[in-house]
Design goal:
Elements (H helix, E strand, L loop, with lengths): L6 H24 L6 H22 L16 H17 L1 E3 L2 E3 L1 H18 L3 H22 L4 E12 L7 H7 L3 E10 L4 E12 L7 H8 L4 E8 L5
Helix pairs in contact: 1-2, 1-4, 1-5, 2-3, 2-4, 3-4, 4-5
């Protein structure tokens, strides 16, 4: 960290932090995420200004002339990190087993650190961190989309009569899906049995219902309908 930086240097630091945050936050906002362009830019600006001010105050050795008190100037950027922790906690939502906002919280944390790096005058490190963060958010999502992940859903099968059709176990075994019975109900008026199963399967990140299972189930004698509701993945 440069002590007593020049005025052009002090102006350049927050500008670079804003540019880096704009690059990272633009896509987040375009996709409807909580931490968009303005949020990331404000966080990076605050972090860079606090760190730049710490560098200026370092020349005083934490003590102003004529004053007996001594201050720890590095508390300024640390305070920014603490504040961003509260912002990140507010971005995380949990609904049952579904957790959303983890990537948004991590993005806010990363943008804060990038702002601190630029505020300290470490331009090369800041540019490298920006490139790595941008690549992690937008480059790896194409790789992640091709990776095999575990998915959960609810399979609802409506059959005629009180019993499941023969061949159900064979269809399930041939699709490499797991099914756990959640509930069953028989409607005496329609003479139909409704069964709901907790379904699990492996597939790409963009979850789609296992079409092989649906085709196999609907082809069984006595099956009136079959439907799969896919649970959203945590993000």
């Amino acid at each position: 960290m440069t002590i007593n930086p020049s005025l052009p240097d002090l102006l350049l630091r927050p500008l670079l932090a804003l540019a880096a945050a704009a690059l990272i936050g633009r896509e987040r906002g375009a996709n409807g995420h909580a931490a968009g362009l303005r949020t990331t830019m404000l966080v990076a600006l605050a972090a860079s200004l606090a760190t730049a001010l710490s560098g200026v105050l370092l020349s005083t050795h934490g003590k102003v002339a004529g004053d007996f008190s001594t201050m720890d100037v590095m508390r300024l950027p640390l305070g920014i990190l603490t504040g961003v922790g509260f912002l990140g906690a507010g971005a995380i939502l949990k609904r049952g087993k579904l957790v959303q906002g983890l990537t948004t919280a991590a993005t806010l944390w990363a943008v804060t650190v990038i702002g601190i790096v630029f505020g300290a005058g470490e331009y090369a490190l800041g540019l490298a961190a920006t490139a790595l963060c941008f690549g992690s958010l937008y480059g790896l999502k194409f790789v992640e989309a091709r990776l095999t992940q575990h998915h959960d859903g609810t399979l609802t099968v409506v059959t005629a009569g009180r019993d499941l059709p023969a061949g159900w176990a064979d269809v399930l075994g041939g699709t490499r899906c797991t099914a756990l019975l959640l509930r069953q109900g028989f409607d005496a008026d329609t003479a139909r049995l409704t069964s709901a199963y907790k379904l699990g399967w492996e597939g790409p990140a963009q979850a789609e219902p296992p079409t092989g299972l649906l085709r196999g189930v609907t082809a069984l004698d006595g099956v009136v309908s079959a439907d799969v509701q896919v649970e959203e993945a945590s993000s």
